[in-house]
Amino acid sequence: xxxxxxxxxxxxxxxxxxxxxxxxxxxxxxxxxxxxxxxxxxxxxxxxxxxxxxxxxxxxxxxxxxxxxxxxxxxxxxxxxxxxxxxxxxxxxxxxxxxxxxxxxxxxxxxxxxxxxxxxxxxxxxxxxxxxxxxxxxxxxxxxxxxxxxxxxxxxxxxxxxxxxxxxxxxxxxxxxxxxxxxxxxxxxxxxxxxxxxxxxxxxxxxxxxxxxxxxxxxxxxxxxxxxxxxxxxxxxxxxxxxxxxxxxxxxxxxxxxxxxxxxxxxxxxxxxxxxxxxxxxxxxxxxxxxxxxxxxxxxxxxxxxxxxxxxxxxxxxxxxxxxxxxx
Length: 328
Prior knowledge:
single chain, about 325 residues, mainly alpha, two-stranded antiparallel sheet, 2 strands, globular, disordered N terminus
């Protein structure tokens, strides 16, 4: 017998962002990331590592990326200069062979994500400059969007989509235990929940910051524009297994902390209704089951759920409303 009591609320969120065409399914997004990751590893990376000349250039580029990304500040001129310096490494006057070019894109994405895991998780404001420079690369470097998406999912598992990572890979073959842990984004069998949550939170803050960073209307792929923010949250709220995870409230809090107020300006009452559904999930229970709270009952989940609840209340107060609007 279930320990939860049913409530009357119907948990139904439109995944399609209001007034826009739908994009892709969670599985399609996950498959694209997994396929790209495998293709880069088995193709360009293997070629580059097997050629001394290409490997030397690639190694030099990797060092340059780490150095330049680490020098980012909030000064617009510094952001512009560093962006151009990195673009020059990836796209010199004499173009690189394609395998080297793709390998450099992969290393650039990794350098950005490592910065998010360390600096952004410690100082969340640093995500702004990092997102601005990343948005520049997404717009100016051909192929970077797909490679970045693949590396993002490699570092954070299914959370950027979001999707439950099952026991089978996208080709239908079962994961062994170690492979599934890697697919989930864990950086080794000894990484605990607290460290994993911290890393994922830093990476997801960068991702959400990219989504709210203005990009050209003809940007390369759907995963780097604002409507994806709505799609992400609607997918999250529709998936009970994700909401039960102690990581879920931290990811949702991060999403609201980055874009919650902007979303109010864009989607108005529809956004408030989504917040009301989220608020019910942290105070009453999600998917109509009283007591089945977002994040579960682990200490990490409880602490993150409190942060999420306070953030929802903060957004509502900033709108000039009272908490009662969440119960209408």
